[in-house]
Design goal:
- The complex is a heterodimer of chains A (337) and B (454).
- Chain A is built from 14 helices and four strands.
- With 337 residues, chain A is mostly helical.
- In chain A, the strands form two sheets. Chain A has a two-stranded antiparallel ribbon with strand order 1-2.
- In chain A, helix 1 packs antiparallel against helix 2, helix 1 runs parallel beside helix 13 and helix 7 packs antiparallel against helix 11.
- The longest helix of chain A is centred in the first third of the chain and has 35 residues.
- Chain B has 454 residues and is mainly alpha-helical.
- Helices cover 74% and strands 6% of the residues of chain B.
- Chain B is built from 15 helices and ten strands.
- Chain B has a two-stranded antiparallel sheet with strand order 1-2. Chain B has a two-stranded antiparallel sheet with strand order 3-8.
- In chain B, a hairpin with a 2-residue loop joins strand 1 and strand 2.
- In chain B, helix 7 runs antiparallel to helix 12.
- The longest helix of chain B has 43 residues.
- Chain B starts with a helix and ends with a helix.
- The C terminus of chain B is likely disordered.
- Classes of the chains: A mainly alpha (337), B mainly alpha (454).
- The interface between A and B is large, with 66 and 72 residues.
Chain lengths: 337, 454
């Protein structure tokens, strides 16, 4: 396998990892705020902070990892995406900053501050929205190139139904994934009240998720025929995704095996995400960047792969340790440690 | 318009880095102090030191959070504000950036575990062991990112062909000639600053609330660390100066206002320049610059006039250099003074004036770090990649960058203010002594509970 394929596969896997971890995190922010508004916060706040506080930095690293890796394997992306995304990217930085600081400050009293909780909830929805702009961009047609200057065509972006449906999809899937995870976590903690609440949220958000996913798919067909066709050729992946979704929904509805349900949802998004990614091949930014044209030199590609393997040998055991301590340690989850 | 966006780009990046530097230095320096304190606490079975580690770790989290978000900001800004630079150099610096993320990852994982497992292990050394990956991860991320900066000063490990880097050797690019002295100086100054900060806090608290056992121990421990890293930092600074003299003479010459190439060059302290570039009111130390640069009083030092005017760094850096070096020596001096007082029984090492000076050392240390970086970065102007790419070729052309400056300025003001408020609330309302008593009480309750059972 060539370095461009290894590179893009690794990066796509990391982006997927970020998608799941960050969704849990971002959605939790929204639910924390919403529960406060509806006076149900006492049910879930403890649950949220017990899982999220130890792992928020890890979530953040997945993101940094993705785009540093992107620039590393495909330096041309820095130029196009960097130039075009200067405004939405900076907005995302500010939102991430507000959110990141919340974790440090929440332990020391600001949790009870409704303004901060609002910011925490709002950033949870705005960050996925602002980050999804990069995905929309990659479909092509939103970049203005004059001589050497690359900029974003805001008018085209804001008037296009595709960009809005991608934003919508990002937001509802965040809420859906997060609610499912917290349902599972609540069931592990044997916290009946939180479980009931989170299960309602999960069931509620499943419908818009699947509807907007279909809508986005249809608009994609109108905007980028090639990508749409490629994805249609991968129909079995999409069908698999829908199957996992139905299994997860059934388990949630029957109120059992929440762990399996969450795994199904992870697989649902994995299939859809890879169908989307493989369909986009070989473009990273249609039509300016393909993965072959922008790949870094082979010596750098080799070095990055070596470091990646070495890094994984270090990280995977550490991540297992984290999960053992904070996710699968029943006593910790129940709040006894 | 083009020039205008370049200036704004520089301001955005300078501001972000300047702000991040405070938290990055804490992020590298403090974990080592926490590790030392916890270790001594376990060894001596002295709960004062354990409490130190706990309290420092609690404050450390706040600064880590701000460090993480500003660090994320910088890594994104690299591509947003300097797209042309990243396109060109991304081929060569991707490796250290990638490795830095791994180091950060490693640190992040274990920091999370460390903070949430204080009482989970029977053997206290297991919890202490968790500090090692944190110290290592923090240190290594500083090392990797510093190699990137080294590369920008001393590009190497590639050949230039038609405006593109080819035949890239990533490892050679990382281990460029600037790397060793830079890494050494960055690490030693971060540990020095971390210790100076904690010593300063201990001294400040003693001034306000009187001398207590806890703060005495904290002060003594940290002053020892200040002395050790003060010495190492002096060696590192000297290595950096010798590196500059050999490989980047224009930077050293600008810092020293050394215009004509000459043997036995004087070291110039402070002073100012008149309209004809004559130095007025400065202290001249004869032949010291030659010695500083080459270890030989009569060595020839390249002057700034050897370089064409559009390749000369701004002359302002002279003050940054002098102040940075002055602060470095002052911190070392303070620790020597402290230990002189400790061993010379007639003197009280906790007298008000000494404590005031130690307290002042904390902000001075941070000022020194900032000035040092301003010197290093401005001293490399007009290059972003020395010899290959000028700053104005690298910047974005988007006029939005001006708005970004104000957006980020606002963000940093808010972040800075909130972290100060939170830190104040955290420590001000909960002095170490009260916490110690609570602990003792808690332990006492436990013991009496057990006795009752027996």
């Amino acid at each position: 396998m060539s370095y461009d394929l290894i590179g893009i596969s690794v990066l796509w896997l990391f982006l997927y990892g970020y998608l799941i971890l960050a969704s849990i995190d971002f959605g939790a922010g929204f639910f924390a705020f919403y529960a406060r508004l509806t006076k149900q916060d006492h049910l879930i706040n403890r649950l949220i902070s017990r899982y999220l506080s130890p792992v928020w930095e890890i979530t953040n690293v997945f993101f940094v990892f993705f785009y540093i890796g992107m620039i590393g394997f495909f330096p041309d992306t820095a130029y196009y995406y960097g130039s075009a995304l200067i405004v939405p990217g900076s907005v995302a930085i500010v939102l991430l900053a507000i959110r990141g600081s919340f974790y440090a400050f929440e332990n020391y009293g600001s949790k009870n501050n409704i303004v901060y909780l609002f910011l925490y909830g709002a950033t949870g929805l705005l960050i996925p929205a602002s980050l999804s702009v990069a995905l929309t961009l990659s479909e092509g047609g939103f970049i203005l190139k004059q001589d050497q200057t690359v900029s974003l065509d805001y008018w085209a972006l804001l008037t296009n139904p595709l960009s809005w449906s991608i934003v919508g999809l990002a937001i509802v899937s965040v809420l859906f994934i997060s609610a499912c995870f917290l349902t599972f976590y609540a069931s592990r903690a044997e916290d009946k009240a939180a479980l009931k609440l989170m299960r309602t949220y999960a069931l509620f958000w499943s419908t818009p998720t699947i509807i907007i996913a279909l809508t986005a798919f249809i608009y994609l067909g109108q905007h980028n025929e090639r990508h749409y066709q490629n994805m249609m050729d991968l129909w079995w992946l999409l069908a698999l995704s829908v199957t996992f979704f139905i299994i997860a929904l059934w388990l949630l509805y029957r109120g059992r095996r929440y762990g399996v349900a969450f795994v199904c949802i992870m697989l649902q998004f994995l299939c859809a995400f890879f169908a989307y990614g493989i369909g986009q091949y070989p473009y990273i930014l249609d039509p300016y960047i393909t993965i072959q044209s922008s790949v870094t030199s082979s010596s750098m590609g080799f070095a990055l792969v070596v470091v990646f393997i070495g890094g994984m040998c270090l990280l995977i055991p550490s991540l297992i340790l984290v999960f053992k301590l904070f996710l699968f340690d029943a006593d910790y989850v129940k709040g006894k440690k | 318009m083009g020039i205008d966006t370049v200036l704004w780009s520089r301001l955005v990046t300078g501001m972000t880095l300047g702000f991040h530097m405070i938290f990055a230095t804490i992020g590298v320096g403090i974990p080592l102090m926490i590790a030392i304190a916890e270790f001594i606490g376990i060894r001596k079975q002295d709960s004062h030191y354990t409490l130190m580690a706990k309290r420092w770790a609690r404050g450390f989290v706040i600064s880590v959070a701000v460090g993480v978000v500003t660090g994320t900001a910088i890594s994104l800004q690299l591509a947003l504000v300097w797209p042309n630079f990243m396109k060109l150099a991304g081929n060569v610096i991707a490796l250290p950036l990638f490795m830095e993320v791994f180091a950060f990852f490693f640190e992040a994982i274990f920091l999370g575990i460390y903070l949430y497992t204080w009482d989970r292990f029977k053997n206290p050394y297991i919890h202490w062991l968790l500090t090692l990956p944190i110290v290592l991860g923090a240190g290594m991320s500083a090392v990797f990112i510093t190699t990137v900066n080294g590369f920008m000063n001393q590009p190497g490990g590639f050949t230039m062909q038609g405006g593109q880097f080819t035949a890239v050797n990533p490892v050679q690019a990382m281990l460029n000639t600037a790397t060793f002295s830079k890494v050494f100086h960055v690490l030693s100054s971060a540990y020095l600053t971390g210790a100076a900060l904690l010593a300063g806090i201990a001294a400040f608290t003693m001034l306000r609330k009187g001398v207590t056992g806890y703060h005495k121990k904290a002060l003594k421990l940290m002053m020892a660390v200040v002395m050790l890293f003060g010495l190492l930092n002096t060696v590192a600074g000297d290595a950096s100066a010798k590196f500059l003299a050999e490989h980047q003479p224009e930077k050293l010459a600008a810092a020293e206002w050394h215009f004509e190439t000459e043997s036995g060059a004087d070291l110039i302290l402070l002073g100012w320049l008149n309209a004809e570039h004559k130095i007025i009111g400065a202290i001249h130390l004869p032949k010291i610059l030659s010695f500083l640069a080459f270890g030989n009083f009569n060595a020839k030092v390249t002057g700034l006039n050897e370089f064409s005017p559009d390749e000369q760094p701004p002359l302002l850096v002279h003050y940054f250099f002098d102040l940075m070096a002055g602060i470095g020596f002052a911190l070392l001096g303070i620790s020597v003074l402290y230990f002189l007082f400790t061993f010379w029984k007639k003197r009280n090492e906790h007298n008000k004036w000494l404590l005031r000076i130690i307290a002042l050392g904390a902000p001075l240390a941070f000022l020194g770090v900032e000035l040092g970086w301003f010197y290093a970065e401005l001293g490399r102007q007009p290059w972003i990649l020395r010899g290959y790419m000028r700053v104005e070729e690298a910047a974005t052309t988007s006029p939005s960058v001006r708005i970004l400056f104000f957006l980020f300025l606002l963000l940093y003001i808010v972040l800075g203010a909130v972290s100060v408020l939170v830190l104040r609330r955290l420590f001000h309302n909960n002095p170490a002594e009260t916490e110690m008593e609570k602990w003792a009480q808690h332990a006492g309750n436990k013991r009496s509970g057990k006795d009752a059972h027996a």
